[in-house]
Amino acid sequence: MKREELQTLGLTDEQINAVMKLNGDDINKEKAKYADYSAIKQQLDKANETINGMADYEEVKANVAKYQKEAETAKSEAAAQLKRLELQNKIKEFTGGKKFVNDLTRDAINAQLESALNDDANKGKSLDDLLKALTDGKTDIFKDENAPTPPVVTSMASSAGQQTTPPTAAPLKASWNRFKG
Predict the structure, then answer these.
(1) Residue 17: which domain range?
(2) Quick one: which of 135, 82, 91 has its CA closest to 110?
(3) Number of folded domains in the chain?
(4) Are both 52 and 92 inside the same structural domain?
(5) Which of 21, 38, 134, 160 has a CA 20 to 30 Å removed from the CA of 86?
């Protein structure tokens, strides 16, 4: 309400002052009801912040549980990897003194030994027993030290004692070309 509005209604200055005072008193009485509005608003903001912090807390708590599970998984995987490496090393040491026909055969036997050692059916068996079971009745796994070695020819010599060179493929190509076309 404004003074100009009251003047247009024909009120005197005294009447206008009285009405304005009554109106001001009513406004102040209503303001008093809401005087603690800013304090309540601050409390509400603080409560909302706490609630939001708790949401972060729940998220952090969930992440901690997740990271603990990941750490336990990594720890068990590392232990399994270490056990596997120790087993492979033990097998390599065992087969290191054996004379296999070639490296491929040795690696295949090592893999079969590792598989056999991991099998529950073979608990308590030694590497000797497992190797014997794998190779029993099979030939061409180990080198035979008593087998004769074939002679190696390094050069060809004629009956006169002169060194000769092996024939080349050139005469064959020439004879083959006559059939081509």
Answers:
(1) 1-35
(2) 91
(3) 2
(4) yes
(5) 134
Helices (H), 9-167: 13-33, 37-96, 103-118, 127-135
Residue 92 and residue 117: Cα distance in Å, rounded?
Answer: 13
More confident residue, 40 or 170: 40
**0.70 exceeded by pTM:** no
Same domain, 96 and 22: no
Q: How many residues does the chain have?
A: 181
Kindly report, residue by residue over 135-147, the tens digit of the pLDDT.
888 877 887 777 7
In a domain, 83, yes or no: yes
**Quick one: 45 and 121 in the same domain?**
yes
Residue 31 and residue 42 in one domain: no
Tokens of 132: 């014997």
In a domain, residue 155? The reply is no
**Amino acid in the structure at residue 49:** E
Structure tokens at 90: 């033990």
9-13, 25-29, 34-38, 168-172: the lowest-pLDDT one: 168-172
Instruction: Quickly tell me which residue has 């308590």 as its tokens.
Output: 124
**pLDDT band, very low/low/confident/very high, at 81 (cuts 50, 70, 90):** very high
Q: CA of 88: how far to CAs of 10, 34, 93, 122, 175, in Å?
A: 111, 80, 9, 16, 58
